[in-house]
Amino acid sequence: MSDYNKELLIALREKAKLGSKTFQMLLSHFQSLENIVDADIAHLAEFPRISEKKAAVIHEIERHLDGIREDLESYREDGIGTLTIFDEDYPKLLRQINNPPFVLYCKGHFPTEDEQTIAIVGTTQASAEGIEIAVAFSNALADAGSVIVSGLARGIDTAAHMGALKAEGKSYAVLGCGINHIYPPENKRLSEELLEKGALISEYPPNTKVTTGRLISRNRIIVGLAQSVIIGELDKKSRGTINAAERARELGKLLFAIGRADLPVDPGLIEYGAIPLEDINKAEMISDHSL
Predict the structure, then answer these.
(1) What is the CATH number of the domain that holds 46?
(2) Of 32, 65, 219, 236, which one's alpha carbon is 20 to 30 angstroms from that of 43?
């Protein structure tokens, strides 16, 4: 897409605060970005979630473009790229979810179409055994050539990224904040190590701080980027992990639950439709769906 349209799209996201669903609704009706911003305020305000104030911002969005250009230049200087849903190299798998992010910010080596990507998620309160299992499976999968996708959270997510790095493989961290505000802060060093072969990815501008809602929302991207989803250890507060499992099931993706003799797979996950996997020797079979 042209630089102008890219700036326009980012301005609609960052200045008019359009969410993915609202943007899709407007684009479906108006058919182009230019038609959206050319529409009169009264017409825009007829749509759900578009107040008259927001409609005015959309209608006058071009006055924000100089600031957007300055922001993008600053991001480029920091090694942060932007990718929109109209770009040819936007991940095809991510286009298939219900509300794909229409702007992504990334730093490092972003996904390519020929990569086998597997998501690994789980509780932030993981036991030592749960972490050990997640590291082992991630390591085996990365060693077999898969890219590990997770959310850089404490516990299982951290173990997943570490397992991939241990195999000198690729791993992508999808953030619930901006790239310049790593959360949790103790994973700052890990985030830097991921950049050597992998990437940090976020739908939020680089200086955005974390919120619970953003952490939940990023699950759709983690799942959307992956061919298969693996659930590590759970606990009663693993709301984000269950959300990821639900999204995987909705999209018809293979869902696995990992464990071993001393920490068996949660029966609830099996009832949920997850394929139990407790043999590390079968880990690489996830990639070719030969289980």
Answers:
(1) 1.10.150
(2) 65
Tally of domains in the chain = 2
CATH number of the domain bearing residue 199 = 3.40.50.450
For residue 270, is pLDDT > 60?
yes
Give CA separation, 225 vs 130, 174, 222, 259, in Å. Answer: 24, 10, 6, 23
| pTM for the whole structure | 0.92
Give the structural domain span for 61.
3-77
pLDDT of 284 above 80: no
Same domain, 37 and 146: no
Place of tokens 């932007």: 82
The DSSP-derived string for 159-228 is HHHHHHHHTT--EEEE-SS-TTS-SSGGGHHHHHHHTTTSEEEESS-TTPPP-HHHHHHTHHHHHHT-SE
| Alpha-carbon distances, residue 143 vs 137, 139, 166, 284, 290 (angstroms) | 10, 6, 9, 9, 17
Answer whether residue 89 is part of any domain: no
- Cβ distance 188 to 182 under 8 Å? yes
